[in-house]
Design goal:
It is a single chain. The protein is built from 1 helix and 8 strands, in the order E-E-E-E-E-H-E-E-E. The protein is mainly beta. Strands 1-4-7 form a 3-stranded antiparallel β-sheet, with no helix packed on it. A 3-stranded antiparallel β-sheet has the order 3-8-6, covered by helices on one side. The longest helix is centred in the middle third of the chain and has 7 residues. It starts with 11 loop residues before the first strand and ends with a strand. The model has no long low-confidence stretch (mean pLDDT about 90).
């Protein structure tokens, strides 16, 4: 006879607000200034643009101990953007980029999140 005890935890869903300015941009090209945006619509007044990406995660309740938006270490990798856009070289423009989160065990992102990276050649300024 084998006895098995099983604990059942209800998954917790938690939202985090990530400031766009805290999203790290990896593999940024030299010679360009960049800005992380929520939309590729440049008709908005820059001062009125939303500056926060809201993400949700699901996980075991104990997985959330000590977790903050900053500890999720959000980043985008422009080498992935270059591959997905089939680019040979960078040009000024706005490019979609998937946001990556560093999550502890037993926690997952509730969705895939995309931001836009605006590159401006320093030669054009």
């Amino acid at each position: 006879l084998v006895t098995v005890n099983v604990e059942i935890f209800e998954l917790t869903k938690k939202y985090f607000n990530i400031f766009l300015s805290s999203i790290d941009v990896k593999n940024a090209p030299e010679g360009y200034d960049l800005e992380v945006l929520l939309t590729d619509d440049m008709s908005e007044d820059p001062e009125s643009r939303e500056q926060v990406l809201s993400v949700y995660t699901t996980g075991w309740p104990q997985s959330y101990e000590g977790i903050t938006a900053q500890s999720l270490e959000p980043y985008v990798d422009l080498s992935e953007v270059m591959r997905s856009q089939d680019l040979q070289e960078w040009a000024s423009g706005i490019y979609p980029a998937q946001v990556h989160l560093t999550l502890p065990e037993n926690m997952s992102a509730g969705d895939e999140y995309t931001v836009y990276v605006r590159l401006i050649s320093q030669d054009e300024e």
